[in-house]
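Today's session is about reading a structure prediction critically. Students often jump straight to the picture, but the first step is always the sequence itself: look for stretches that repeat, for charged clusters, for runs of hydrophobic residues. Only then move on to the predicted structure, which in these notes is written as discrete structure tokens rather than atom positions. Here is the chain we will use throughout the hour.
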Amino acid sequence: MASTADIRNGLCIKFNHDIYKIVEFLHVKPGKGPAFVRTKLKSLTNGKVLDNTFSAGHKIDVVRVETHTFQYLYNEGNDFHFMNTETYEQITLNKDVLDAPQLLKEGTNVMVQINTETDMPLSVDMPASIILEVTYAEPGVKGNTATNATKPATVETGANVNVPLFINEGDKIKIDTATGAYIERVKE
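Below is the predicted structure for this chain, in token form.
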């Protein structure tokens, strides 16, 4: 058992007969009344996000997890296949467990958190950003350069990303995996 003082981003806890990962937390100490911790929890079984408030000192049940590096191999419909880079053991995860499955490129290394009690994969942490090649982008129209003008583009994984007008087909771009937003063009 742990208390609210141990809450941090990425911590996995048992709550309401399910396993949740703490996405965000904020320790609040109002002028009147006791302190509390406001959290945003993401279910690791169905992906739903809920807000919850724990009073200060509340006991929480922590789930012991191990983190391993896995390489993304391929997907079949909603099933995504990964391989442990140390043991070469393969696992299959549902699309719902992944935060940004549309940005996964074959060969990408991800961090998978595994429940040590049941050996079940709980969540997949993608790298902060990923570099993908633009496969389709409409040409930018000359004179259509208002501040921060963007156009839709399709990357090699099939995902659609809004990019600046100067991006063309064949360019490699860096994308933020948390938001799916364009960061910068990558020169090679």
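Discussion point for the tutorial: The chain has a mean pLDDT of 87.
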